[in-house]
Amino acid sequence: MPRVKTSLTGIKPTHVPHLGNYLGAIKPALRLAETYRSIYFIADLHALTTIRDPEALRSSVYDVAATWLASGLDPDKTILFKQSDLPEVTELAWVLSCMLATGQLMRGHSYKDALEKEENPNAGIFNYPVLMAADILLYDTHAVPVGKDQKQHLELTRDVAARLNHVFGEDTLVVPEAVISEAPLVLGTDGTKMSKSKGNGIPLFASKKKLRKFVMSIKTGSETLEEKKKAEGTTVYELCSQVSPAHAAEMKEKLAAGNFGWGHAKQILFEALDAELGDKRDGYHALRADEDKLDAVLADGAERARVVAQATMARVRNAVGLRR
Ligand code: TRP
Fold this sequence. Notes:
The chain is built from 13 helices and 5 strands. The protein folds into 2 domains: 6-186 and 291-320, Rossmann fold; 208-284, Tyrosyl-Transfer RNA Synthetase (Orthogonal Bundle). It has helices at 19-31, 44-47, 54-70, 88-97, 102-106, 109-117, 123-138, 151-168, 208-216, 235-243, 245-257, 262-288, 291-320, and strands at residues 6-11, 37-42, 79-82, 143-146, 177-180.
């Protein structure tokens, strides 16, 4: 077992990441590399539970890879790979599924949610937590940083790992810890939580001109220019403080002094965003245009992940009797 603990982050490639994903998920996940041996993977097998368009899936995988790399993921110091490049994960998922009672899967929140929305959700949705457990256990993961919504999946992962170890030998799988942290709430242009489905997102790597347009479309109060304004609690200010505390302090002071309108405040937010994202935007577009390069990074990551995965699978096959 390596001395440094391993953290694992799974990213579902379902859309081009927006500013909310960047501030709420990408930046916090990239900071893990300071304390853990960090592994990041693009969960394309999980995306298959909902995506029916092969081109969209392929393209989404590249969008996500380019976004994370441009945002600062260092593929030399960490591992970035594509889930489906390591088919060992589906083999492990099968073994784990044989250790799990169907009742535990039937109690799964995401399966129950899916049942409420449609009569007959696909079995991928039902089995999703098993594949997720396999993702985690295949790489000897110690820490899985997730939001509250994933807590149940982590409990199932720990349960199934402990059960397999109990039945087949305690040294077979590393039992991981969930590191529960709620992602900071990032507000969208309408002042509610930024989300792809609500159409209130600010695109991360749109051109400067487009970015400005999105920022200018943020809902604000209707005070007059002259009025002194309170910054806290407003979308423009809260977003700004998540992007750049220095810009936010300046905005707050000017709003409080009066004779400073919301349009001016938005200009400060735009400048803060452009300072944060300008170089990354250029990096993103260069990377996204070079799929061969992205393939090479992902292939290299897969190769390094495979070393751990194959060792885990050798232990599992041995333990359960698939190999002498
Ligand atoms: N279920 C996670 C999500 O919806 C994605 C994911 C898949 C994941 N496998 C994982 C996260 C393993 C952490 C570890 O966001």
